[in-house]
Amino acid sequence: MIVEMIETKISESLKNTIGQMKNGQMQKQNCMVYKCPVCRDTGIELYIADDGHEYARNCKCGLWQRERMNRMLSFADIPEAFAGLRLDSFDTSIYDMANSRKIADMNMQIANYWLDDFEKMKDRGMGLYMYSAVKGSGKTRFAVSLANEVIERYAVGVKFATSVQILNEIKASWNSDSQMTEHRLLDELTEVDALVIDDFGIEVPKDWSMERFYQIVNSRYIHKKITIYTSNSALEDLLYDDRITNRIEENTYQLRFPSESVRKLLRERHQVELVKMMKGGVA
After folding, report:
1. How far apart are CA 168 and CA 184, in angstroms?
2. Which residues form the IstB-like ATP-binding domain (predicted)?
3. Residue 156 pLDDT > 60, yes or no?
4. Kind and range of the H or E element at 113?
5. In the chain, is it the N or the C terminus that has fewer CB atoms within a 10 Å radius of its CB?
6. Number of H helices and number of E strands within the chain?
7. Separation CA 25–CA 16 (nearest Å)
C-alpha cells in the first residue's frame, strides 16, 4: 500500500508535467541544455504509436526510477548519518576479539541469505531480531544497511523509527492540535511492507504502551509484514508480555551481536591516528 501511494504521487506529478509539455508551457525552456533531450529531464517520453495516437512512457534515461527511489528513501525516515550505507560496507574486522569477528561474519552470511531470498521472506513475513547488551555493537548500522538494500534491490516500502520515537509520536497524536491522529499513525506503522524498530525494549512498558506495541506487532504478524528489530535485550529478557514476544519469536531470525562496542573501538583508533599525525607533523 505504501509503495502504491508513493507511485500514485509520482504519477500525478508526471501527468502534470505531460500536461505542461502539451500545453506549450515549457516551450520557453527550449534554449536550456537538458541532461536528457528526449524527455527534457521529466522522466517521461512522448511517442507516436502505430495507431497514430500519442502516448507517454518511462524514458530510458532512468529519471523515473531515480525519482521513485528518492521518494521511497525520503519516506523511510532513515537518519542522515546512515544514508547510503550498504551491507557490503559493514567491516566485520573492526571487532578486536576473534569470537566477535566470528559472530559478525555469521550474521553477515545470514543477512545476505535473507536478502537474496527476500521475496520468500516477504511472503512469510520473516524479519530479523538483532540484539546485544553492549551499546554501539553495530546493530543499528547493520539494520539500516539492510533497509537501504531492501529499498534499492526490491523497491519495497520501508519505515525506520526507534521504539521511543514511536511512543512519543503516539502520545503527541493525543494532542487536539496534532495533524496526525493515533489511528493514522498506527496504520502507517502496521501497513508498511518493512518496518525497522530500533532500540526495542529500552523503555519501561506501561499498560498503554504495551497495548500499542501489541497492536503493531500483532497486525504485522497477522498480515505477514516484515519487521526488523534491534535491541539491547535478548528476546526472552524483554519486559513485554508473551503476546508480543511469542509473535516476534515466530516471525524473526534472531541474530546475536558481539559484546563489543564498535563506537569505542573506532574512538580508540581515531585517537591513535591523531597521535600519529601529530608526531608526523612535528617530525
Report:
1. 15
2. 135-237
3. yes
4. helix 98-116
5. C
6. 10, 7
7. 11
Q: What does each C-alpha distance from 141 to 23, 41, 97, 148, 254 come to in angstroms?
A: 48, 34, 19, 11, 16
Instruction: Kindly give, in sequence order, each residue whose CB lies less than 8 Å from that of residue 26, ignoring residues fewer than 6 positions away.
Output: 20, 40
CB of 74 within 8 A of CB of 151?
no
Q: pTM of the predicted model, to two decimals?
A: 0.73
Cα dihedral value 116, 121, 127, 130, nearest 10: -30
pLDDT in tens, 39-94: 776 777 777 788 877 878 777 776 555 555 555 545 557 777 778 788 988 989 88
- Give residue for cell 574512538: 267
Which residues, including other chains, have CB under 8 Å from residue 168's CB and lie 6 or more apart?
A: none
Report angle CA 29, 33, 36 to the nearest 5 degrees.
100
DSSP bridge pairs for 195: 159, 227
Write out the three cell numbers for 56.
507517454
Quote the radius of gyration of the chain (alpha carbons, Å).
23
Query: What is the Cα–Cα distance from 206 to 213, expressed in whole angstroms?
Result: 11
Q: Domains plus CATH for the chain?
A: 1-7+29-68 (no CATH), 77-264 (3.40.50.300)
> How far is 39 from 62, CA to CA, in rounded Å?
10
β-partners of residue 174 are: none
Q: Which three cell numbers stand for residue 136?
A: 554501539
Contact between 231 and 238 under an 8 Å Cβ cutoff? The reply is yes
Residue 133 to residues 93, 136, 138, Cα–Cα distance (Å): 20, 9, 12
Q: Cell 537538458 belongs to which residue? A: 34
